[in-house]
Fold this sequence. Notes:
The chain is mainly α. The protein is 69% helix and 0% strand. The protein contains 21 helices and no strands. α7 crosses α18 (420-426). The longest helix has 34 residues, at 336-369.
Amino acid sequence: xxxxxxxxxxxxxxxxxxxxxxxxxxxxxxxxxxxxxxxxxxxxxxxxxxxxxxxxxxxxxxxxxxxxxxxxxxxxxxxxxxxxxxxxxxxxxxxxxxxxxxxxxxxxxxxxxxxxxxxxxxxxxxxxxxxxxxxxxxxxxxxxxxxxxxxxxxxxxxxxxxxxxxxxxxxxxxxxxxxxxxxxxxxxxxxxxxxxxxxxxxxxxxxxxxxxxxxxxxxxxxxxxxxxxxxxxxxxxxxxxxxxxxxxxxxxxxxxxxxxxxxxxxxxxxxxxxxxxxxxxxxxxxxxxxxxxxxxxxxxxxxxxxxxxxxxxxxxxxxxxxxxxxxxxxxxxxxxxxxxxxxxxxxxxxxxxxxxxxxxxxxxxxxxxxxxxxxxxxxxxxxxxxxxxxxxxxxxxxxxxxxxxxxxxxxxxxxxxxxxxxxxxxxxxxxxxxxxxxxxxxxxxxxxxxxxxxxxxxxxxxxxxxxxxxxxxxxxxxxxxxxxxxxxxxxxxxxxxxxxxxxxxxxxxxxxxxxxxxxxxxxxxxxxxxxx
Length: 532
């Protein structure tokens, strides 16, 4: 038997799209813009870091980061992100979304700036400083995942909720794109001011001393967009659903939303007075949660885990893949700054043609097609295009066939973003109870970052050439890019199977989805794992 919905929550579900919705999208979205910029810009400068700090006199090839350093630089932010998702997700359900929201942003601002600083000038001290601050940068970024998703889902109406949450996440695409553009601008400016020969024409001169500033400027730029939105984040009221359902203050929730929606909402009923209140107060580790939402959490966490193995391994090592297919020339034929410029140009093109459009296709279609079909189709087409890259891999590495490779590679990113990369962010913010929503989203997101760590650490070694003669300095022979693509395709097929564990949430109120309006001990029909 369903209990009566609070008037303030009914008003939010039925509200027409208004200016405050777009304001919330921008405020939350700019955090994700910064998240993506900070997480992915490191892949643009790792080659430069190797040249600057690990030059090997007499070597026919430019310096490169040793395997353990490369793994740490690429992956340490993900370790911080995983920790932040769990911690701030839990804290958001204890202290409220608004109170924690400002903490994550300031952590991101301070650590973005500090990432460009060094305590000492030796390679070890510079890399240690970089890794230390990128861990805490990731910690702040991790908090942004559950909080931004939860805040947007709790502000939105049920008709366009998917599009609003997807729009917040879509700012990630612009963050990745901006990372490439900023790198292009900075590297072009330094190339114009400090001309340098190719490595093969002058090993030392190919990396001018001023190149050490390039990566610092690029990393520190990430603080600017986050800092610009701090004031507006602090002005946002606490979400009505947290105030009414968790803090048990329906009057305050009604007052807050009356100002936001610019309508009168009279809501004096206290949810704590409801007869079924105790019945819906089960905790995360209770048998009742396991019965109602255990499979849902398994589905959201596993799908995000499998998706991020593929998504982040591809994103972080685009530069290596482009070099393998000869789209980027051999490093010794370029100066340090030219190599940075070419890597940024390639990644910007992929972001512009594949990554960004995929996000906005999701925004446009998610409330029409539904979460389930977008996620299932995304996993399927990612697997298909990865197999299309892997089976004729020798063909794609032949000169003259690079464009076909880039097209298929771009399509994998398109269907990642018009697919599970968006939906795995959206669904956990909709299907769990308000008092556990941020925590469960944080757990799901942390599972994703565990996949990203496997992608960034594991495939750094796995993707090495099978022939030891062509392996990067300091590495052992791996299974090669071709076999790595087969593994990633298998991850996508597994993701298709686990997609069936989460319910379709399209057009259903958050309270209906979570069963918070339901007095019965059985889970509501729409919360079953078989989508309709």
